[in-house]
């Protein structure tokens, strides 16, 4: 049995009693004596009663409102004293020996955080969309994963079982140094949900730290539980938050890169329109309107981030165009990409 007292596993919950019933037992059985904490985002179901009656030793933090993923974790983690946090979605099935490999990876003091191999709970031989075998980003800041390019998810044949440095670790299951999380002021609460973990990893990498994928640790993720992947609301958050993230973190002058990305977004919006996906088209439009309306605020954040930048660790940055590789060159697997373009 693996024992570690300086790890706090924090599960953010909002009306997820059924998920807690299903997945909490494995967390308890396979996590040694790590602290297990449920941070509840003002649930209106019987989540709290269930935990108190069934698992009275589990700690509960009651957030006063549903502030989404970003604020929910920020509020809760301020109250938790630990060396490492494990942020764990409530719809994740952990497996035996899931914690120890990640904990061992964190022995390198320059490793800010890591993630396990994320497989699909409902299709267990395949990677899961959100995180897969580690997150990357291309030169235009489109996120993708080892094992998942856009909607093409690969079967896990052990092809990504090597431990590597990545650009971002998924918020579905991420171990992170508490000190760095708080130094970065946690997640950007303006994101509400989606891509806030990429933004956080990017900011921490500006201090010379890196993130790792640790595939010897394995979990299964249901995914799409809060919002289906095709949801127009999810489209809105993904497009909006990506633009904010670029404005805040781009290493060079921000304007050319931002407006180039917005032009590419426009092409995506037209594609939604041609497919009759009018709500998704509107989602992209509204995301751009938000970006324009809040640009000054985002630039103030950028100024603060730039002040603290020391040495940007570019590991996990793909210096190619993932759109070109996927749609024009028909490269459907991460392993098909030009390895020389990866930092």
Write a compact overview of the structure shown.
With 343 residues, this protein is α/β, with parallel strands linked by helices. The protein has two domains: 7-221, Spore Coat Polysaccharide Biosynthesis Protein SpsA, Chain A; 228-309.
Q: Helical proportion?
A: 25-40%
* Count of alpha/pi helices: 11
Order of helices and strands: EHEHEHEEHEEEEEEEEHHEHHHHEH
CA-based gyration radius: 19 Å
Termini, distance in Å? 37 Å
What brief labels describe this structure?
Spore Coat Polysaccharide Biosynthesis Protein SpsA, Chain A, 10-stranded mixed sheet, 3-stranded mixed sheet, alpha/beta
Describe the structure.
- With 343 residues, the protein is of the alpha/beta class.
- It folds into two domains: 215 residues, Alpha-Beta Complex (Spore Coat Polysaccharide Biosynthesis Protein SpsA, Chain A), CATH 3.90.550.10; 82 residues.
- Helices cover 38% and strands 22% of the residues.
- It contains eleven helices and 15 strands.
- Strands 1, 2, 3, 4, 5, 6, 7, 12, 13 and 14 form a ten-stranded mixed β-sheet that branches. The chain has a three-stranded mixed β-sheet with strand order 9-8-15, with no helix packed on it.
- The longest helix has 21 residues.
- The protein is globular, with a radius of gyration of 19 Å.
- The mean pLDDT is 95.
């Amino acid at each position: 049995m693996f024992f570690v007292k300086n790890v706090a596993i924090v599960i953010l919950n909002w009306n997820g009693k059924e998920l807690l019933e299903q997945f909490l037992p494995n967390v308890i059985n396979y996590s040694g004596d790590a602290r297990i904490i449920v941070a509840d985002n003002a649930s209106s179901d019987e989540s709290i009663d269930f935990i108190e009656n069934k698992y009275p030793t589990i700690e509960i933090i009651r957030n006063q409102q549903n502030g989404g993923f970003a604020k929910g974790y920020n509020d809760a983690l301020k109250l938790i004293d630990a060396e490492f946090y494990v942020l764990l979605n409530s719809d994740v099935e952990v497996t035996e020996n899931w914690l120890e490999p990640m904990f061992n990876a964190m022995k390198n003091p320059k490793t800010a955080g890591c993630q396990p191999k994320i497989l699909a709970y409902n299709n267990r031989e395949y990677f899961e969309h959100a995180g897969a075998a580690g997150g990357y980003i291309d030169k235009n800041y489109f996120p993708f994963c080892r094992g998942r390019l856009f909607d093409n998810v690969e079967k896990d044949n052990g092809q990504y079982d090597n431990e590597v440095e990545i650009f971002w670790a998924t918020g579905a299951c991420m171990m992170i140094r508490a000190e760095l999380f708080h130094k970065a002021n946690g997640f950007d609460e303006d994101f509400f949900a989606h891509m806030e973990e990429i933004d956080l990893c990017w900011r921490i990498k500006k201090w010379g730290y890196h993130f790792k994928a640790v595939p010897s640790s394995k979990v299964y993720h249901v995914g799409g539980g809060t919002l289906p992947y095709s949801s127009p609301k999810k489209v809105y958050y993904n497009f909006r938050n990506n633009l904010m993230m670029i404005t805040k973190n781009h290493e060079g002058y921000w304007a050319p890169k931002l407006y180039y990305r917005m032009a590419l977004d426009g092409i995506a919006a037209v594609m939604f329109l041609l497919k009759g996906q009018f709500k998704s088209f509107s989602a992209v439009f509204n995301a751009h309107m938000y970006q324009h309306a809040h640009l000054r605020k985002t630039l103030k954040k950028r100024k603060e981030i730039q002040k603290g930048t020391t040495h940007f660790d570019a590991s996990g940055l793909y210096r190619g165009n993932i759109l070109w590789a996927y749609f024009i060159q028909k490269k459907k697997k991460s392993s098909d990409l030009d390895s020389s373009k990866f930092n």
